[in-house]
Specification:
By secondary structure, this protein is mainly α. The protein has four domains: 151 residues, no CATH class; 82 residues; 67 residues; 111 residues, no CATH class. The chain is 61% helix and 5% strand. The protein contains 20 helices and five strands. A five-stranded mixed β-sheet has the order 2-1-3-5-4, with helices on both faces. A hairpin with a 4-residue loop joins strand 4 and strand 5. The model has no long low-confidence stretch (mean pLDDT 88).
Length: 461
């Protein structure tokens, strides 16, 4: 394939992924990039909680880029990360046919519910995920490529908690080699021992982080917490997405059955990540990447008529999308007013501007926690995006406590009093707001500010 066409494809991927920064966790990630976040200093609920979320490399990078280039720089960085991911996708499929280009565009399209928020630490994990598959594939011809795995895991574990996906990929590779060895006694011992040693070294590399082995406790907390009941991207995919996942998985097995082949590593990878995708929306990009990689191995890329027919259309649509997308992203990133009003959440920008005395312990909308940590460093919030998998003394998530209060469940006011809450900064029309509107003084609160986005109540007891 013409190198110019490859460049055009990668440039199109960059333009498509040059997106506004809409992640509600940006604020606390930025603040962590400016100071030490080994303990919880940002919320007054569970203060000094030993959270083991090892994202300090991502946080430092994010803060560095934002301080020098603003949100536009962050959007450029996010586009470059996804472009690099596309490049590794091409390397994994080991060809540059237009069918491969089409496959990656389908991955983007089907995974858009996860990718459409712009740069997030999850995007870094997606890049490392593809890099892991690339290293495993290269090791089939030259096992020395696996030496890079522990070094990659050292960086990954200090970037995003999703690092364990790399260990799973390596474990699947090892399991496939072991299962094949049961049928092929000619398999050399070194072929089994080396990946085993690399896996052990990779596990040890993940312990080199500010929290040590506690990062695995955080993973367990996420697995055992009812995340699907609290966070949208942890919920199950839509019925349509589930049917697509199941249908594509069946399609792969039909293809390999007709060809009478048994690519064990591909099979194990597809089954595992299909199961993961059926559990949570956030795992969709993993499955779709794996599916189109393993199906690409079964496609005759020399017969590329379909891809060549679709490629000009695909590129035209990408460029058309970029013409609309790039100016919109720049406008979003350069206007704080647009950022406040057109993002994933409408932030209380006017409220904190028009009521500057807001201070102390502030029970705020969960979606606003990261924003307030960034914009109002002098206050402490009740809960934010770092905390859904944390546990209080009763084993409950801070998010669950947050919901009990906003929904005025029994004991809501006592909890706020117990934690010495100074202000409420909540959305108008919530159960809590409707209750306090009727008779706030009975509960010891007084309304101080209201607009279409936020209402502020002050503790008067």
């Amino acid at each position: 394939m013409n190198k110019l066409l490859v460049i055009l494809f990668l440039f199109s991927v960059f333009l498509i992924n040059f997106l506004p920064v809409k992640d509600t966790d940006f604020g606390w990630h930025y603040r962590c990039g400016k100071e030490n976040c080994t303990k919880n200093h940002f919320s007054y609920f569970l203060p000094d909680y030993p959270a083991a979320n090892p994202s300090f490399l991502y946080d430092k990078t994010l803060a560095f880029i934002y301080d020098r280039f603003g949100f536009v720089g962050v959007s450029v960085f996010g586009g470059l990360i996804m472009t690099l991911a596309a490049y590794f996708f091409l390397l994994i499929t080991d060809n540059e046919s237009s069918i491969t280009f089409l496959f990656f565009c389908l991955v983007l399209f089907l995974s858009w519910p996860v990718f459409n928020l712009g740069l997030r630490s999850q995007i870094i994990t997606y890049l490392f995920f593809l890099l892991s598959i690339f290293l495993v594939k290269k090791s089939k011809k030259n096992f020395r490529w696996l030496w890079l795995f522990p070094a990659m895991m050292l960086v990954w574990v200090n970037t995003h908690i999703g690092f364990f996906v790399g260990l799973i990929i390596l474990a699947i590779f090892l399991a496939s080699k072991y299962m094949l060895s049961l049928y092929d006694r000619a398999t050399k011992v070194r072929e089994m021992l080396f990946p085993t040693m690399v896996l052990l070294l990779s596990v040890l590399a993940t312990l080199i982080n500010p929290f040590g082995i506690n990062v695995y406790r955080t993973i367990i907390d996420h697995i055992t917490s009812p995340m699907s009941l609290m966070i949208a991207e942890w919920t199950r995919p839509s019925l349509l997405q589930q049917l697509i996942i199941i249908g594509l998985t069946i399609t792969f097995f039909i293809v390999i059955a007709r060809k009478k082949i048994f690519p064990l590593f591909d099979i194990l990878m597809l089954l595992f990540f299909a199961l993961l995708a059926l559990i949570g929306v956030r795992n969709l990009p993993f499955f779709y990447a794996v599916f189109f990689i393993v199906i690409s191995n079964q496609v005759d890329h020399d017969r590329d008529q379909l891809g060549n027919f679709l490629l000009p259309i695909m590129m035209t649509l990408a460029i058309f999308f970029a013409i609309i997308n790039v100016p919109a992203t720049v406008a979003f990133d350069q206007s704080f007013n647009i950022y406040c009003t057109q993002g994933l959440s409408h932030y209380p920008c006017q409220a904190i501007k028009n009521y500057p005395v807001l201070s102390g312990n502030v029970y705020a909308a969960y979606e606003w926690g990261g924003f307030l940590i960034w914009q109002k460093p002098q206050i402490k919030v009740y809960a934010d995006g770092r905390m859904p998998a944390w546990r209080d003394e009763n084993g409950r998530s801070p998010y669950q406590d947050y919901l009990d209060i906003i929904q005025t469940q029994p004991g809501w006011n006592e909890q706020l009093r117990k934690l010495k809450t100074d202000y409420l900064l909540i959305m108008p029309g919530t159960f809590l707001d409707l209750l306090l509107q009727k008779d706030s003084k009975t509960y010891g609160w007084q309304e101080k500010y209201r607009d279409d986005v936020a209402v502020i109540y002050k503790n008067i007891l």
